[in-house]
Design a protein that fits this description.
With 466 residues, this protein is α/β, with parallel strands linked by helices. Among the domains are: 1-140, Rossmann fold (3-Layer(aba) Sandwich); 141-257, Tetratricopeptide repeat domain (Serine Threonine Protein Phosphatase 5, Tetratricopeptide repeat); 399-466, no CATH class. It is built from 22 helices and 5 strands. The protein has helices at residues 17-34, 44-48, 57-64, 108-124, 129-135, 143-156, 161-177, 182-197, 203-220, 225-239, 242-255, 260-271, 277-290, 295-307, 311-324, 329-341, 345-358, 363-394, 405-414, 418-430, 434-437, 453-462; strands at 2-4, 8-9, 68-77, 80-89, 94-104. Strand 4 (80-89) and strand 5 (94-104) form a beta hairpin. Helix 19 (405-414) runs antiparallel to helix 20. The longest helix has 32 residues, at 363-394.
Length: 466
């Protein structure tokens, strides 16, 4: 296993952090896709935890479970960049290799190829035929377009709607500057997919655009694993083309076995909807192995256990995620649902209140909402509490960011109103809401519908197995 530590920004300009961060991320992606035999590459999220760290190489190696660390720095001066890098073996902190590169910006991607060549030779002694072919590809690009692209990635990695919309603008400008820049189309496709997940756009606003961008990226470079994964997400969440999604996810993982997000997405956007839960758990475990410090992947590992019906492991994993960062809102929000559906509604209300405050609600508003739901629970039990949850949600369901119709359907189902649950499932299908309805076969939020004949009919319409 190899970890690429964040490149140090040596430009004496904090505004250039996006450039050093972007080069780090691109190097991780490039090394993962180059895929030296027997070498795993730790994903960006876990690597970025060590930005500006004072921890030793041996300590980082132990925490990440890696055998090698690549560390480096970048100094940008006008149209040139100076990159320094060194490969260190963590067991004895031996410096195996070091190199400095002075390049024009339009040749910067070639530096990543040269890093891959050096690391592959250090680890395995030579290059495979496939690696030699990958490294022979022309990687020059317009420097201004590349700069815009790195800014787009910087904003895309911030999980909030405004930042994601800003990233879309940067990717679009990069494409305008260089219409043949495949990576910019991949970034745009990812931003539209993520924008749908985080409420920046509705599915109908963004996912067809994600497909156009991913398809264009693949036309320019069919070997881009990220483009295949982006297309798979659109196929699963918007078109409900699960066979097509399977093909694209598997191709993404074949091209880059170190692509943690592809393993996670394959788990939750194809295997779980298909009811193949043992495989879904295994794929998410692989994602976690490659990105062990990602709070999102840790939380979604817990969600995968929940969908598989292993509530004990799910709770352990949620608690582990919250222990990693008690201020991570999704950890509390997702855990609250597990607590509620396992009969611990009071605890679930408390966790949800914590998550809402961490998500930006005022403590007073969150406490008032929790008190209303808790009163309903104490008076009328779980169904009454779900009904109150639903009433509060419906007050904002058609206001941006729009709530998923699939989530509304599950609350109707949990509160015992099957007719309205199926009405909202129909709306989820019409609005291509795969996020909220794709996993209904195994989602405990829909457990009360499974004996109804309409449920099997809806699964067939979605293209899901009964």
């Amino acid at each position: 296993m190899l970890a690429v530590l964040p490149f140090q920004n040596m430009s004496n300009d904090p505004a250039q952090e996006y450039f050093s961060d972007g080069l780090t991320e691109e190097t991780i992606t490039d090394l993962g896709q180059l895929s030296p035999e027997h070498l795993g590459v730790v994903a960006r999220t876990s690597a970025m935890v060590y930005k500006h760290t004072n921890k030793s190489i041996s300590q980082i190696g132990r925490e990440l479970g890696v055998d090698y660390i690549l560390e480096g720095s970048v100094r940008r001066e006008g149209g040139k960049a100076r990159v320094s890098a060194q490969l260190i073996r963590t067991s004895d902190q031996t410096h195996l290799w070091a190199q400095n590169y002075q390049r024009e910006l339009h040749d910067l991607l070639q530096v990543e190829n040269e890093l891959g060549t050096a690391i592959a030779r250090q680890v395995q002694g030579n290059l495979t035929q496939r690696q030699q072919f990958d490294l022979s590809k022309d990687r020059t690009m317009d420097p201004e377009a590349y700069d815009l692209y790195l800014k787009g990635r910087f904003y895309r990695n911030q999980p909030n709607p405004d930042a994601i919309k800003e990233s879309v603008g940067y990717f679009q400008r990069a494409i305008t500057k260089d219409p043949d820049f495949a990576l910019a189309y991949v970034g745009l496709a990812d931003a539209y997919n993520i924008g749908n997940i985080f409420g920046a756009y509705s599915a109908e606003e963004s996912l067809p655009k994600a497909k156009v961008a991913a398809t264009k990226a693949l036309a320019l470079d069919p070997s881009l694993a990220e483009a295949h994964a982006a297309l798979a997400m659109e196929m699963s969440h918007y078109e409900f083309d699960f066979p097509g999604a399977q093909k694209e996810f598997e191709r993404a993982i074949e091209l880059n076995p170190n692509f943690a997000l592809a393993h996670m997405q394959y788990s939750l956007s194809y295997l779980a909807p298909m009811g193949r839960m043992a495989e879904a758990v295994a794929e998410n475990k692989k994602a976690l192995e490659l990105d062990p410090l990602s709070l999102t992947i840790n939380a979604l590992m817990a969600t995968t256990y929940m969908l598989a019906g292993d509530y004990e492991k799910s709770e352990q994993q949620y608690r582990h995620t919250i222990a990693m960062d008690p201020n991570f809102p999704l950890g509390h929000l997702y855990f609250s649902f597990l607590l509620k559906i396992t009969g611990r509604y009071d605890e679930g209300i408390t966790e949800n209140e914590k998550g809402e405050v961490l998500s930006g609600s005022s403590p007073e508003v969150a406490a008032a909402k929790a008190a209303i739901i808790r009163e309903a629970f104490h008076k009328g039990g779980e169904k009454a509490a779900w009904q109150k949850d639903l009433e509060l949600l419906m007050e904002k369901v058609d206001r941006p960011p729009q709530e998923s119709p699939g989530i509304v359907a599950s609350l109707y189902a949990l509160s015992g109103d099957k007719d309205n649950a199926f009405k909202w499932l129909d709306r989820a299908y019409a609005e291509h809401d795969g996020m909220g309805s794709g996993s209904l076969k195994c989602d405990p939020g829909f457990k009360n519908l499974r004996s109804d004949p309409r449920f099997g009919a809806f699964l067939r319409r979605m293209g899901l197995p009964e």
